[in-house]
Amino acid sequence: MKKNLSLLLLLIFLVQIRSTFVSAQQPLAAPVKVTSVEGITEYDLANGLRVLLFPDASKPTVTVNITYLVGSRVEGYGETGMAHLLEHMLFKGSTSHRNIPQELTSHGAQPNGTTWYDRTNYFETFSSTDENLNWALSLESDRMVNSFIKNEDLQSEFSVVRNEFESGENDPSGVLEERVMSTAYLWHNYGKSTIGSKEDIEKVPIENLQAFYHKYYQPDNAVLIVAGKIDEAKTINLVNKYFGSIPKPQRIIPKEYTTEPTQDGERFVELKRVGDVQVVSCGYHISAGSSSDYAAIPVLNDILTNVPSGRLYKQLVETKKATAVYGYAYALKDPGFAYYYAEVPKDKSLDDAKQTFLGVFNDLKNNPVTADEVNRAKTKLLKNFELMYNNSASVGLTLSTYIAQGDWRLWFLYRDRLEKVTVEQVNKAINDYYKTSNRTTGVFIPDANPDRATIPSAPDVSALAKDYKGKEALKGAEAFDASCANIDARTKTGKIAGGAQYAFLKKETRGSSVNALITLRIGSEQTLQNKGALSELTAQMLRRGTKNKTFQQINDGFDKAKATVNVFGSGQTITISISTVKDSLVKTLRLVKEVLREPIFPQEEFSKLIEQNLADIDQQRSEPQSIAFNTFNRILNPYPKTDFRYTGTFDEQAEETRNMKLDDVKKFYADFYGSSNATVAVVGDFDDAAALSELTSMLKNWNAKNQYVRAPEPFFDVAAQNQKINTPDKANAMLAAGYNLKLRDDNADYPALIMGDYMLGGGFLNSRLAVRIRQKEGISYGVGSWLNADPIDQSGGFGSYAIYNPDNADKLIAAYKDEMQKMLKDGFTEAEFKDAVTGYLQDEGVNRSRDSYLTYVLSSNLFLKRTMKWEETQENKITTLKVEDVNAAMRKWILPEKITYIQAGDFEKKKKND
C-alpha cells in the first residue's frame, strides 16, 4: 500500500512540475483588481490566489504575510495537530530554498508562523529593498507547493512540537481552558486544541502529512498580504511573476458541514494537578465573528473584566476573593466561544469565589449594562483598533484573523459595528447567549423547561462584503530613512530647567502616531538599601489614583485620548511608555503629569495590589522557567540581601510583600521621586513646541530629597555550579546556563562577540544551537543564547536557555556542550559569517524603523551622552570584521568550564516509571 501511495504521489508531483513548466511558457494572465478599502487593495490571480497590497511609506520595512485557510477546524480523526505540525515543517526547506532558517537570517528578517482554528499563516518583516522583496515572494511561492515534507525532518520536528505541547501542559490555567472547550463542544473541532494530541503528533505517517499539505497549500486556498514601503504596481507584477505560474489545482476542497448542536444544560469540568493558584472559569457559546451581533460581545467582555471597573474585577478582586480576572471572546469562522476565568489564592475559598464569579453572570439579566459601561468599553476597543491600524506591519498580520472568518474587510466591518454598538445590543447578547444552559463550568442541573440558547449560523460573508467600501483611508506618511545618520540629523535635543533632558524626532507617520518614553532615575546604592521591592511597588501604585481621579477615571482618560500608557519601576529607574496619536499627545502628557506628580496611593488599591503580587509570586513557585531563572540569577548576581538588586527566594519575596506598608510607599515617593536625571524621547508626528511645554510643566525643577547617584554594576567572578531542581508534575523543563564576563561595550572584541553569539544562538532557527538541538535532534522547542555588556562598567554576561522534555535532560546537556566545543575548536565558516553579518545589520535596520524602539535608544543615548553615531560606528566595525576575528574573540571570552547549569523540571517521573 505504501509503495502504491508513494508512486501515486510521485505521479502527482510530476504532473504538477509539468503543469508548472507548460504554464511558464505561456504569458501570465494579468491580475484583476477587485476592490480597495481604506488604502488596502485586493487583486485576484488567475489561479485563485487573492492578494492584498497595503502601501505605507512611513517605515523602511515590508511585511509579507501569507494566510492559508487551514487550521485545526478541518483536521480529521487521527489528524489533530496536523495543521500546526505542517507549519513547523514548512521551515525545513523547499526546492529552491533548501535552508530557510539561513535565508531568514541572511536577509535580517523577523519571521514566524502561527496556526489557529481557522487558518495558518507565515510572515517575514524585513528592510524594504527590491532584493529582499523578490526573495520573500520567491520563498513563499516555492514553499506553497514545493516544500520537502520529508520523513527525516518529521522525525526530528515532531519531538519539537511535542516539546511545545508539553510546555503548554505546564500551565494549569491553559489546560483548564482546553478542558472547558472540549466539554463545551461535542462535535465541532473548536473543542480540540490547535496543538493537537501528543499521540497524533508522534504517530502521524509522513504520507498523511504530505497529502494534507498538497490538499490545502494551494493558491486558491490562500491570501497573500504585502504591506509596507512598496510600489503597488511593481509589487503586484512581482507577485504575479512568482505565484502566477503555479497552476490552479483541479481538486475541490469540500465544505465543512459539522454544526455544534445547541447546548442543553450547564456542563462542569474539574481539573486536578500540581499548581499554586486555584482557578475558576466558565464559557459560553457565541455567534461567529462575522455575525452582526458579535461586536456587542467584546464590549460586554470589557464591561466584565476591565481593571478596575469591571464587574468581575469589582466583585472578586476588590473583595480579595481573587487576585485577577480575565476574559476574551473568540471571533471565529463558525460560531465561537467566550471564556472567563479568575485566579484564586490557595488560602482563599474556591467555592466562595466560584459562587461570586458565577453570580456576576447570573445577575446580568437583572442588572443590565449601562450606557457609561458601554461607552467606556467602546472607547477602549476603538482606541486599540486605531493604534493598530496606524502600523502597517500589524495590519498585515491582523488581517489573517479576518481572512479566516471569510473576508479581510470584516476587520473594517467589525470596527463600524463596534462604533454603533448600543446598550440594547449588549443586553440582547446577554439574553441570547449568557444563559445558564449555554454555560460550561460547574454541575448538571435538571430542568423540565430548559431555556436554551440558539446560536445563529455564520452569515454569507461573500454577500456581506461584496459592496463594502469602508471609510476614507488614512493619510500617507513620509518615506523615513532609518539610518543612524538620518536619525541623528532629524533628532532635536535639549534640557529642561532642573536637569531633565529630551530628544525629539519628528516625522510623518501613518495615522499620525507618536511614541514617547519618560525615564526617571532615582536614589543611590546606599539610600536604596532594602528598598528594591518598594521601588517596584511604588511605581505600580502611581496610576491607581490621583488627587482628582480614581484608577478607573485615569484609565478612561487614557482610552479617550487613544493612548496606551504603561508605568514600570525597577531599582533606580521609573519608566513611562506612551503610544498615542498627534492630536492626543498633549492631553496624554497632561494626564501622565497628574499620575506622576499627584498620586494619592489609595489604601484599597494598595491592598488589592499586594494580593495580586502575592498571587504572582505563588504562580512562580512550581513553574520550571521561574525556578530556573530565579536560581540562576541568585547564583550569578550574589548581591547582599540589603542591596536593591538582590534576588530573593520566592519565600523571601512573599514575606517582603506581605510586610509592605502603605506609609512605606508614600515615604518612598516623597524621598526619591524627582526629574533632575530624567530623560524623555518622543518619536513620531507631534507638535514639538506643545509637547515641550507639557513636559516642562511636568518635569521642571522637580527635585528629590535623595539625589540620584548611579549604582555601579560590579563584576562577580562566580564559580561554576550544576543544579537540577525537581518540579513535580510539570511536562516541560527549563535550562538556564551561563556566566559573567568582565566586559564593557566599548571593548575592542565586543563587535566580534556580538556576531559570534548571533551565529551561536542569538539568531533565528539558523543559529548553531537551534540547528543542532531543535532542527536536527528535536530536543528543544526553544533554544538560544545571549551576550551583553554594560556601557559604563566592566560587567557583562554570556548565557543560554532551552525548553525541553525532562526525559531529554542529559541528551540536551551533552548536545549543548558538544556544539560549544565544535564552535570553539572548528570556528564559524566564512559563508556562515557572511550571511550572519548581512542578516544582523538588516535586523538592526528593521529595529530602528520601530518608533517604540527608537524612543528607548534615544533616551539611553541622552543618559550615556551618545548619539546614533555610536551605533553606526559599531555596525561599521562589524562590516570590517573577518571570520577569524570572531573565532578568536569567542575562543578568548567563551570558557565552557565557567558555565553554570541550572535545570528545573520533573526529573523524578522517569525514574519512577523506569
Question: Any overview of this molecule?
Answer:
The protein is an alpha+beta fold and 914 residues long. It folds into 4 domains: 2-243, 2-Layer Sandwich (Cytochrome Bc1 Complex, Chain A, domain 1), CATH 3.30.830; 267-449, Cytochrome Bc1 Complex, Chain A, domain 1 (2-Layer Sandwich), CATH 3.30.830.10; 484-699, 2-Layer Sandwich (Cytochrome Bc1 Complex, Chain A, domain 1), CATH 3.30.830.10; 722-913, Cytochrome Bc1 Complex, Chain A, domain 1. Helix content is 45%, strand content 17%. It is built from 34 helices and 23 strands. Strands 1-2-3-7-4-6-5 form a 7-stranded mixed β-sheet, sandwiched between helices. A 6-stranded mixed β-sheet has the order 13-14-18-15-17-16, sandwiched between helices. Strands 8-12-9-11-10 form a 5-stranded mixed β-sheet, sandwiched between helices. β10 (324-329) and β11 form a beta hairpin. α19 crosses α25. The chain is globular. The chain starts with a helix and ends with a helix.
